């Protein structure tokens, strides 16, 4: 069954050992968009001289190296970014994008917040920006329980 995006969240937490999922997650407020988390794989031409058509193998997925999560620029978002940046000075910070049931999955990865950036500012529009996160582990699809 298809579902709407309502209830999808960006969350973060500290990993006890740098690889394990956090024991608790904190939701990031005021998120308005989530980028593609697992990019398209590259392809490599492995066509032999005897082939009558091009042959390819899949390479590694590439999400571009930085994930820009769209946010409303609010004091709460600025505080959250500062808190994450402080935590990542001494701990591994994990992130997850959770989609509730019926999908019931999340994309999870360790990463580093590099900046809170503004989007273009124009008259009579909400002030928006991006929380830029660079993944330091592969983005994995896992089962999701919003309470965990």
Note down, in words, how this protein is organized.
The protein is mostly beta strands and 148 residues long. It contains 1 helix and 10 strands, in the order E-E-E-E-E-E-H-E-E-E-E. The strands form 2 sheets. Strands 1, 2, 3, 6, 7, 8, 9 and 10 form an 8-stranded antiparallel beta sheet that branches. Strands 4-5 form a two-stranded antiparallel sheet. Strand 7 and strand 8 form a beta hairpin. The longest helix has 13 residues, at 75-87. The radius of gyration is 18 Å and the shape is globular. The two termini are 24 Å apart. The mean pLDDT is 93.
Q: Quick one: how many beta strands?
A: 10
Structural class by helix and strand composition: mainly beta
> Would you list the SSEs in sequence order as H and E?
EEEEEEHEEEE
* Unreliable segments of 5+ consecutive residues: none
Cα-to-Cα separation, first versus last residue: 24 Å
Number of helices: 1
**What is the general shape?**
globular
Mind telling me the C-alpha Rg?
18 Å
Helical proportion, percent range: under 10%
Short note summarizing the structure:
By secondary structure, this protein is mainly β. The protein has one helix at 75-87, and strands spanning 9-15, 26-27, 31-33, 41-45, 56-61, 67-72, 92-99, 105-118, 128-135, 140-143.
Describe the secondary-structure layout.
Blueprint: E1 9-15, E2 26-27, E3 31-33, E4 41-45, E5 56-61, E6 67-72, H1 75-87, E7 92-99, E8 105-118, E9 128-135, E10 140-143
Antiparallel strand pairs: 1-2, 1-7, 3-6, 4-5, 6-9, 7-8, 8-9, 8-10
